[in-house]
Amino acid sequence: KLFQTQETISHKLAFPEPSEIIISSNDYPNIHLICGNIDLIFDDNQNDGSKSRRIKKFIKDFALKEEYDYIFIDCPPTISFYTDAALKASDFYIVPNRIDRYSILGIKLLKQVIDRLKFDEDLNLHPLGIVYTMVDNMNRQKVQKLRETFESSDIVKEIDLFDSFTHLVNDLTVGYQGNIASRYKKSEDDIKNICIEFLTKIEGRETE
Description:
- This protein has 208 residues and is mainly α.
- The protein folds into two domains: 1-90, no CATH class; 95-102 and 126-208, no CATH class.
- Helices cover 42% and strands 8% of the residues.
- It has helices at 18-21, 54-61, 64-67, 81-88, 103-121, 141-151, 154-159, 170-174, 185-206; strands spanning 22-23, 33-34, 92-97, 126-132.
- Helix 5 (103-121) links the parallel strand 3 and strand 4.
- The longest helix is centred in the last third of the chain and has 22 residues, at 185-206.
């Protein structure tokens, strides 16, 4: 609904009201959601650059930063139109990242995209850190070598790293109790630790 194409020049595209697209739940009254659509990753903003600014404009027009403590925009693990739109609307970014041989290449590509956006759009966008995900055993020799190689990169040092990470939980992967991570004790603990570190990092930024 936010990214619909304007059909005619004379017709002004109107944003939906927040109440039309924001979902709330009695079970979690302090968390609201806007559902995404996987088709967004196929959208092309080459002919209409304004579309990639619509998340930012939606948040501003409806004063959502005054409404919420934090607004998180989840992105697919690809560089896409939607990634651009999310970054343009953000003050900070967090990079979930597996420890594998492709990590350095992926981080370099992401950093190039972000640097381009910051230059083109004059963004005040800052990295908050990289979060390791699906870690099987941080002390395994192979993992340790990959981690040391990854963390020796200047780009990684610039983005920074979270001390907290998420473990690989096989039951979650196969859906033993469904796909909600907080239903699994180890994942729940991981999420709590990341949240605590996130708040610490944000508070540190705000006092700088």
